[in-house]
């Protein structure tokens, strides 16, 4: 390893940068406790080789620099820019641009300037309706986190890689997946109101397909057959908690009662509960507090983040103790609403899998029992498509989480190579007609869960 002496000096309070680096675990990370530091500095053999600036901080420190504010809905990463290899980059917010420059991210000599406060973006918990790309230009939508947090991490990492490259150094990081695999496939089922008969059929189907999966139990609806889950659980069948009552409240006490009851009933029949997936993919800070109190290890809500590596939420000025495992938010019922044919449904997921595989991100989808039984041919196709990739490891949520924990203890660093992901040329259509989605948001009044603390 050539870059043994690389140090990344980060202000201890700069959780934004730390958050991006914690998920990545780059080689040689060093945190300096200097509160006055307003940027991230990169050193090689004790010599400064680069800096990352947050323009909003420049605003406070250097009064002479003119900052222009401009609203951006999204950015489309161009080749040869620092955004390369990133999916559509959602902003829906104001960016701060240096007045004399015309670019979104400036890379001047060895300095990179970001047009936003990373910490604020990573601490954004808002939810909004968004379309997801499909080459047939029929775009399914879902209510998901306003900020796709993985894009921001990728931008920081791309910047670091570039600074190192300028100095003929390489960026090393801990592999995201075990045993040299290039990705993982996780299949999640949310047990929403399914009867025992339905659940049994789903289990039979998945066992026949020889698929590992994680079933998140809707406990109240399953209260008469909880024993079934206890009997079925094994290394291929991971049982975790969806809810007691299929609802996510804003108030901490109510969430606590709901989750405590669900967790206890499952644990009473001998199922160890580590993971949670909230109804409707909703997430708020009260939920995070409850998950910490009840000692959950991970949870999975696209209302917090989606299509990303595991991430630790930032809560006020600290990291959550509970890891977030983001998934792809589009379930088959969203495709059904748009009257997708079976063939189109299969194509949608195949595209998602290919895209995610080339990005080097985990491939994680979810479904409900009723959908699996209504469209078994779609799921068969998805599973066999995944199995064709010898480089994709199929795991359960808990297994992947355990690997993610263990990952920090290995020393098996590898060199970062840019991923092969290329943005489809017509992707801008997906953010074009958002008027319809705005109306939907209004009707559903999902904004009620905004900024819940
Ligand atoms: Zn549900």
- Mean pLDDT level: 88
Number of helices: 14
| Strand coverage percent | 15-25%
User: Can you give the helix content as a percent range?
Assistant: 25-40%
Count of the separate structural domains: 2
Distance between the termini: 45 Å
Specify Rg, calculated over alpha carbons.
Answer: 22 Å
Question: Poorly predicted ranges (pLDDT <50, ≥5 residues)?
Answer: 446-453
Strands of the biggest beta sheet: in what spatial order? 2-1-3-4-8-7
Largest sheet: 6 strands, mixed
Number of extended strands: 22
What binds here, in terms of ligands, is: zinc ion
- Helix/strand/pairing class, anyone? alpha/beta
CATH topology of the largest domain: 7-stranded beta/alpha barrel
Key attributes of the depicted protein:
33% helix, 23% strand, 453 residues, binds zinc ion, 7-stranded beta/alpha barrel, 5-stranded parallel sheet, disordered C terminus, alpha/beta, 6-stranded mixed sheet
General description of the model:
This protein is an alpha/beta fold. It has two domains: 6-173, no CATH class; 178-415, 7-stranded beta/alpha barrel (Alpha-Beta Barrel), CATH 3.20.110.20. 33% of the residues lie in helices and 23% in strands. The protein is built from 14 helices and 22 strands. The chain has helices at residues 15-24, 55-61, 118-122, 149-166, 196-208, 226-232, 252-268, 285-293, 332-337, 342-359, 369-374, 376-387, 397-407, 435-444; strands at residues 6-11, 29-32, 40-44, 47-54, 67-75, 89-98, 106-108, 111-114, 127-131, 141-145, 172-173, 183-190, 213-218, 237-243, 275-276, 298-299, 314-315, 318-319, 323-324, 363-367, 392-395, 414-415. It has a six-stranded mixed sheet with strand order 2-1-3-4-8-7. Helix 1 packs across helix 4 (149-166), helix 7 (252-268) packs parallel to helix 8 and helix 10 packs parallel to helix 12 (376-387). It is globular and about 70 Å long. The relative contact order is 0.15. The model is unreliable at 446-453 (pLDDT under 50).
